[in-house]
Amino acid sequence: MSVSPGPAASATSAPASAGPAPTQAELLDFVRRTAADTELIDSLPLDPEGRTWLRLDGPGGSEAWLIGWPPGTGTGWHDHADSVGAFLTATGELREYSLAARLPTDGWKTLELTEGVDRERRLAAGQGRAFGRHHVHEVLNESSDRHAISLHAYYPPLPRIRRYTRAGQVLRLEQVELPKDWQ
Questions:
Q1: Which residues of 96-131 are buried (b: 16+ CB within 10 A; e: fewer)?
Q2: In whole angstroms, what is the distance from residue 137 CA to residue 148 CA?
Q3: 0.70 cut: is pTM over it?
């Protein structure tokens, strides 16, 4: 597995897949096995103020990220477009808030969410989850004094990330990011 440092990493493309696309279960297995590599986990430089990351090559042409989360940081509401994925907390604890609803993929700016679509998961070290395409969520390190580190894998490599704001039951599309914006 190759590693490139972030956040100043240059854009890299994942290697071409030699076989079938990895499944959500295979991505979850990959992040679980990778999180057990304590040397890799310990190699991530941690910043007290902002998230840090290393890009990894995942299975079957997927991309993966090792991410450090300072206390009180999070992603904001977002999705991973057409990619399936998995993530696992390697150290610390993360909280995921997600929507149990399939949203339209394009052509909207504001949606009113129905009652009962909110989900919440606490992911302590060693816990993770897989998710399908267009999964809308936010991930947070709610600790006031401890970093968290997590592993994430996506297939196909992220074509874009859509960022949202949320006020009550209203979800609003704010920005679409392309790989050049985060690599």
A1: bbbbeeebeeeeeeebebeeeeeeeeebeeeebbbb
A2: 18
A3: yes
Alpha helices in the chain (DSSP H): 24-35, 38-43
Residue 85 and residue 128 in contact, taking contact as beta carbons nearer than 8 Å = no
Q: Scanning the structure block, which residue is given the tokens 């009113």?
A: 112
Per-residue pLDDT tens digits for 47-93: 999 999 999 999 999 999 999 999 999 999 999 989 999 999 999 99
Q: Give the torsion sign (CA, 78, 134, 157, 130).
A: positive
State in words which class domain 19-181 has.
mainly beta
Helix (H) or strand (E) holding 63: strand 63-69
| Structure-token pair, residue 43 | 């190699």
Q: What is the CA radius of gyration of the chain?
A: 16
Reply yes or no: is the peptide bond before residue 7 cis, omega within 30 of 0. yes
Can you give the three-state secondary structure of 92-134, one letter per residue? CEEEEEEECCCCCCCCCCEEECCCCCEEEEEEECCCEEEECCC
CB 46 within 8 A of CB 68: yes
Assign 45 to helix, strand or coil.
coil
Q: Residues with Cβ < 8 Å from 41, sequence gap 6 or more?
A: 35, 66, 90, 91, 149
